[in-house]
């Protein structure tokens, strides 16, 4: 089985590649902008005919699209998150129409949740910013493509190798810089929002299940922890693993802005978010194996794939 992973050197892509390479009989190829990629692919700029030639050369049975932008201006987000999947689907129809496509979407596509009511895959989508809107456009391109395709809507990934661009990775970097100084103060924004955190290793396992499952899959499947957790609980849990003796201060006017999520525009104005993961259990036999505390411990210990 030949599996091409696009965005193979990113946070999610690195874990997905590591997981898939453990599969017996799988040949995993990396695709991306890096010079070491098996196939050079930039979904933000590639033309469909050019990408079709690359796909024909790779001859994949499955393509996993982990490529995506989480930050940047709206044009950059649209190029990678919306245009990229559309170009990929067009190229696949020409070069590898029988290949399965596993595309990584985002729970941000749902927009603000209703407290106490997890979002199912049929919940209305009302993203509040360019990130969620462009991810939703990418999902629309995939689900309307006519390909053997599934979109995995990922919650808030956390775990080993979490990048500093997201709140868990950023807080870990701040804690490492603070060390064991009892006078140290971490000043963050309001941490009262609730998020559905999922261990990145569980995300990789879900991708493996989706890539190898027999027969067609539902067009969209939620992949999350299945619980709404206060962001404050995540931050304080990571501080406990760090043995941080100082103080954590929150302020709506703090350095992380009113959302309190490390300045993440994609999380603005969403105070509660949780995904119903029942469909993934039914279709893939998948449920998260790691708790949030497991993920925070692995992040702090620095294990796993960056």
UniProtKB/TrEMBL annotation:
<comment type="similarity">
    <text>Belongs to the NAD(P)-dependent epimerase/dehydratase family.</text>
</comment>
<dbReference type="Pfam" id="PF01370">
    <property type="entry name" value="Epimerase"/>
</dbReference>
<dbReference type="InterPro" id="IPR036291">
    <property type="entry name" value="NAD(P)-bd_dom_sf"/>
</dbReference>
<feature type="domain" description="NAD-dependent epimerase/dehydratase">
    <location>
        <begin position="3"/>
        <end position="224"/>
    </location>
</feature>
<dbReference type="InterPro" id="IPR001509">
    <property type="entry name" value="Epimerase_deHydtase"/>
</dbReference>
<protein>
    <submittedName>
        <fullName>NarL family transcriptional regulator</fullName>
    </submittedName>
</protein>
């Amino acid at each position: 089985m030949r599996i091409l992973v696009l965005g193979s050197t990113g946070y999610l892509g690195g874990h997905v590649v590591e997981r898939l390479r453990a599969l017996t009989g799988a040949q995993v190829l990396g695709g991306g902008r890096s010079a070491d990629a098996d196939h050079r692919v930039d979904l933000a700029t590639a033309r469909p005919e050019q990408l079709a030639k690359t796909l024909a050369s790779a001859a994949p049975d499955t393509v996993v699209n982990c490529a995506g932008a989480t930050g940047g201006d709206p044009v950059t987000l649209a190029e990678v998150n919306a245009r990229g999947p559309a170009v990929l689907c067009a190229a696949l129809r020409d070069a590898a129409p029988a290949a399965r496509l596993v595309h990584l979407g985002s729970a941000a596509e749902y927009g603000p949740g209703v407290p106490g009511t997890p979002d199912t895959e049929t919940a209305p989508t009302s993203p509040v910013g360019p990130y969620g809107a462009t991810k939703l456009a990418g999902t629309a391109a995939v689900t309307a493509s006519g390909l053997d395709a599934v979109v995995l809507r990922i919650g808030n990934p956390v775990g080993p190798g979490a990048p500093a661009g997201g709140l868990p990775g950023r807080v870990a970097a701040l804690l490492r810089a603070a060390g064991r100084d009892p006078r140290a103060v971490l000043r963050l924004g309001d941490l009262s929002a609730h998020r559905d955190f999922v261990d990145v290793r569980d995300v990789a396992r879900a991708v493996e299940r989706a890539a190898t499952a027999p027969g067609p899959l539902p067009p969209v499947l939620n992949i999350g922890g299945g619980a709404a957790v206060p962001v404050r609980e995540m931050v304080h849990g990571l501080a406990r693993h760090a043995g941080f003796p100082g103080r954590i201060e929150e302020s709506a006017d703090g350095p992380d802005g009113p959302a309190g999520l490390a300045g993440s525009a994609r999380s603005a104005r969403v105070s509660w978010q949780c995904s119903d993961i029942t469909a993934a259990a039914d279709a893939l036999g998948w449920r998260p194996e790691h708790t949030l505390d497991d993920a925070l411990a692995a992040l702090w210990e620095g294990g796993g794939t960056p």
